[in-house]
What we know:
Elements: E1 2-7, H1 11-22, E2 30-32, E3 38-46, E4 51-60, E5 64-69, E6 76-84, E7 89-93, E8 96-100, E9 104-112, E10 117-121, E11 126-134, H2 136-142, H3 145-155, H4 169-179, H5 186-213, H6 222-235, H7 246-253, H8 257-268, H9 272-290, H10 295-301, H11 307-318, H12 322-328
Amino acid sequence: MISFQFIQKDFTSWLNEFAGQLGLTPDGQELVIPASLGSGTISALNITRDLSLLVMDCSFHEDLELIRDPSQEYGIILFFNQVEISRFFRIRSGENEMTETSKSRNNIFLSSTNMELDLYYSGGSKLKRVGIYFSPAMVKKFVRDDMQLFLTVYTDRGLYNVNRESINFELKTILDDIFQTTTKDDFGRLVLQNRVLLLTEKFLHNLLAKEVNGEKKNHVKKEDIERIQTVEKILTQSDLEKFPSINELSRMAMMSSTKLKTRFKEVYGMKLYEYYNRHRLQKAREMIIRSGTTIKDAAYSIGFSNLSNFSRAFKKEFGLLPTQLRANG
């Protein structure tokens, strides 16, 4: 088992300490996990002295335990988790503990650095996590008093917040950009800085809107969230050629079609087909931009047999035609 105990500081320091625990040395701001331990990378970037980013896209053969001891001052950690669990996941804080065996974890967890936290991932779990660290100095200097009070009350709820917030399509698109951007050049670092600020703004805006409007009074049950996440995973499968029927999705979620449609929109903020369509169009966009795929092949690969229909859907989603995207690229 790999066990790492720490007090949260900036993520660059965290990465260096974690690498030392493994007997490794980061290559600049990136730690490559050797085949003897697992696979993938962990990257860290200090955007300012008080704001830093961690990007984990890796897997370890052995169980991994991350033990965060409480800091003396109040800083904030925001994690976006897209994790595939091999056997189980456990999270503990003080006397409170949760163990989950659901295969997929797709959530956002906001916590304070003076909250002790123990994360345990079974070996073979695939960790896709983006963390943003706000130092105590930054919280004191830049966060308004009323917002500080709100965040303090929110983070004091501890593990109650673990499954409260899901990653919607808008946030997932930003996260995809982060995973595909390098920390090794100036342009990449500039893009990451922009995405970190955008992620934070979007998350806090959505969180405040929910709290103010009282939407959390109709909080979706944990078991329903897990079933909804199963459906979300199906809708975003890379080999999915067409939209499954609502009845088929309802059977997979083990709930009525009406309940599925209602709960899915509550969790992800859009209808089932809308979510599916936006995801596949985003996939086509990435293929055209990043891999040089032809517009025709990109359209066919996501299930469009008619190029005119693809172009109309693409323009509706992104505000320009695929040909204009290629010309701009």
